[in-house]
């Protein structure tokens, strides 16, 4: 797919990239090669392949979610350097 230097200039402007005129032709050729490759991927038969399929089998390493009792407030605040009215006191960082 041939892409013009004007199209490269336009896309560069959208991306806020400054490209020298000397490089426009080279980038147009490189982008054309990328677009040709993407076009060739359309010919790949993906019928029956789920969108989240992987080339190799993957397994989730996380444990199952199980309901557990939560930490009570006094225990959570017990080791806090400073607390007040049942909350952690942290240094103010915004003036």
Mean pLDDT: 90
**Proportion of beta-strand residues:** under 5%
Strand order of the largest sheet: 1-2
Helix content: 25-40%
Helix segment count?
3
Shape field: flat
Taken in chain order, the helices and strands follow as: HHHEE
- Biggest sheet overview: 2 strands, antiparallel
Ranges with pLDDT <50 over ≥5 residues?
none
Q: Compute the separation of the termini in Å.
A: 55 Å
Strand element count: 2
Question: Structural class from helices and strands?
Answer: mainly alpha
Radius of gyration: 28 Å
General description of the model:
This protein has a domain of 37 residues. 38% of the residues lie in helices and 4% in strands. The chain contains three helices and two strands; from the N terminus they run H-H-H-E-E. The chain has a two-stranded antiparallel sheet. The longest helix has 21 residues. The protein is flat, with a radius of gyration of 28 Å.
List keywords for this structure.
single chain, 95 residues, mainly alpha, two-stranded antiparallel ribbon, flat
Topology readout:
Blueprint: H1 5-14, H2 21-41, H3 73-77, E1 83-84, E2 87-88
Antiparallel strand pairs: 1-2
Helix pairs in contact: 1-2
Short summary of the structure?
With 95 residues, the protein is mainly α. The chain is built from three helices and two strands, in the order H-H-H-E-E.
């Amino acid at each position: 797919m041939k892409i013009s230097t004007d199209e490269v200039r336009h896309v560069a402007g959208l991306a806020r990239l400054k490209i020298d005129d000397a490089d426009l032709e080279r980038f147009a050729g490189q982008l054309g090669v990328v677009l040709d490759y993407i076009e060739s991927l359309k010919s790949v038969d993906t019928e029956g392949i789920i969108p989240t399929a992987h080339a190799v089998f993957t397994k989730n390493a996380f444990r199952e979610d199980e309901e557990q009792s939560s930490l009570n407030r006094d225990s959570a605040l017990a080791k806090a350097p400073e607390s007040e009215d049942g909350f952690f006191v942290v240094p103010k960082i915004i003036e």
